[in-house]
Predict the structure.
Amino acid sequence: MKVRSLFISDVHLGTRGCQAERLLELLRDYDSEHLFLVGDIIDFWAMNRSIYWTPEQNTVVQKVLRRARHGEHVMLIPGNHDEALREYDGVSFGDILVANEHVHVAADGRRYLVLHGDEFDQVTRYHRWLAVLGDIGYNFLVRANGWISRLRRGLRIPGYWSLAGYAKRRVKSAVSFIFDFEDAVIHAVRERGLDGVICGHIHSATVKETDGITYINCGDWVDSCTAIVEHMNGRMELIHGWKPAALQDAANDAGSTLNRRAASADFLQEAP
Ligand SMILES: [Mn+2]
């Protein structure tokens, strides 16, 4: 499918949690004129502890480079896990432009601030040690996710269920953390006179409208596996990069490509 823009954040290459295979499927399914990598693409924090790099993660890097070479406008916006790249604001590496933030004008003329967003996260900004600690805890949840997924597959329970996602929705402090973050970002965008924002960082994907400001979060590729597409008319849509396990098996058996969105729609409700 051809779209105008594709926005992806929080891939966390270099970690065990990175779901590179699912991201590869998405990259295969969507051709775009603009590709925005909205921060935390390569996880240098985690790689300081230990490096986990798979052939699929290599392929992700190669596919992105290839798209840039073939004329797609690829922009890399650094996040806090790849903050070393922030020194290269405005520098082009081959066909990829690094920018700390960018104003994207959509096909419908609406102007969106594109940035990773960690500067609006009070925890990361003022208590770096706490952020690192939280990161280790979150990584544990994501790993536990992997065990649960395998167990569910073994028991032939359909669908995809994320423990980390569940925790984020149920733990009260996590919910208020997400609200505080969204409020801070929306406030900043309104001050700057823009129509909306496209960010990442908090691993909580959404497209929503608040008092005339469109708040969009790309989500992530360790847990929710989501991305944002801008259609040719400027409409922004949240897409899911995973297929329900049962249908995935069917698709593999038949060697066919299912319509991911149609297939996943029925399974979006939470398992208990
Ligand atoms: Mn981040």
Observations:
- Residues 2-265 form a domain with the Purple Acid Phosphatase; chain A, domain 2 fold (CATH 3.60.21.10).
- Residues 39-40, 79-81, 116, 118, 201 surround manganese (II) ion (CB under 6 Å).
- The radius of gyration is 18 Å.
